[in-house]
Amino acid sequence: MLVPANKLPTHQRRATMRIYSALQMGAYHTNHCEDYLLVSEIGDNKIICAVMDGCTMATDSYFASTLVGKLLRKIAKEKSYQELYEPATFGSLDDYLKAVLKDLFGELRQLQNQLMLDERELLTTLVLLLLDLESTQGIVLVLGDGLISINGELMEFDQDNKPDYIGYHLREDFETWYSHQKQKLSFNKANDISITTDGIFTFESVHQPTIT
Questions:
Q1: Burial code of 76-115, b = ≥16 C-beta within 10 A, e = fewer?
Q2: What is the DSSP string of 13-30?
Q3: Is pLDDT above 90 for 127?
Q4: Closest listed residue to residue 49, CA positions, set 112, 132, 130, 118
Q5: Which residues touch 96 (CB under 8 Å, ≥6 apart)?
Q6: Which residues are CB-neighbours of 129 under 8 A, at least 6 positions away?
Q7: CB 79, CB 100: distance < 8 Å
Q8: Which residues pair with 193 in a beta bridge?
Q9: Which of 48, 78, 116, 118 ranks highest by number of CB atoms within 10 Å?
Q10: Cβ neighbours of residue 75 under 8 Å, at least 6 residues apart?
Q11: What are the E-state strand segments in the chain?
């Protein structure tokens, strides 16, 4: 969950931003947590946040979600350096998001070839948020299932237990694939933002024992 202090002066916002995160292995996952999360600075006064959920029925489901998180962290660092030396490289947040995803696809394709990975080893959902801390504008893309909350308004993306995993599309033309993405949302003036995998729907209330 992200809570930017958008009413403070611009130069104070980064210092006062509060970020809350939670990651826990599911009750039915005995060996590994199949989810992964990332929060990282990217460029000037922006952050990238992502949550991934590996496919339980695939091979080593924790691997895909973790790999995507590590690659996004690498890409964020590279984009930060690129923006430092070439400030006019990126235009809108949508352009920035597209550039990040294009790099992610390229990295995944390369690793799939190098490690001879099967498609079933690269099945993970992705909820990807790019936020401008200065303007509190942002954009979110959901690949597969997920849940977004912006200023208290919930938006659930449910693909009926048949998520459209990233791994299904690595052999496709990226430009064509990206142009067909419908689970994308831009927003302005966000006071609070939350992104989560569909694992949140399995949370249960903790019942305290009754003392007699």
A1: beebbeebeeeeeebeebeebbbbbbebbbebbeeebeee
A2: HHHH-EE-------TT-S
A3: yes
A4: 130
A5: 42, 43, 46, 79, 90, 130
A6: 2, 48, 49, 50, 138, 139, 140, 193, 195
A7: yes
A8: 2, 150
A9: 48
A10: 100, 103, 104, 107
A11: 2-3, 18-19, 35-41, 46-54, 124-132, 137-143, 146-150, 153-157, 184-187, 193-196
pLDDT of residue 57: 74
Mean pLDDT (the chain) is 81
* CA-closest candidate to residue 195, choices 123, 126, 136: 126
Q: Give the per-residue pLDDT at 30.
A: 60
Residues 104, 97: contact at Cβ < 8 Å? no
Task: Inform me whether the pLDDT recorded for 54 exceeds 60.
Answer: yes
Domains, the chain: 2-23+33-201 (3.60.40)
Strands of the sheet containing 146-150, edge to edge, are 18-19, 2-3, 193-196, 146-150, 153-157
Q: Is 142 helix (H, G, I), strand (E, B) or coil?
A: strand
**Amino acid 88: pLDDT:** 65
76, 48 Cβ separation under 8 angstroms = yes
Residue 164's nearest CA partner among 142, 140, 184, 144 is 144
Residues whose CB is less than 8 angstroms from the CB of residue 208 and which lie 6 or more positions away in sequence, other chains included: none
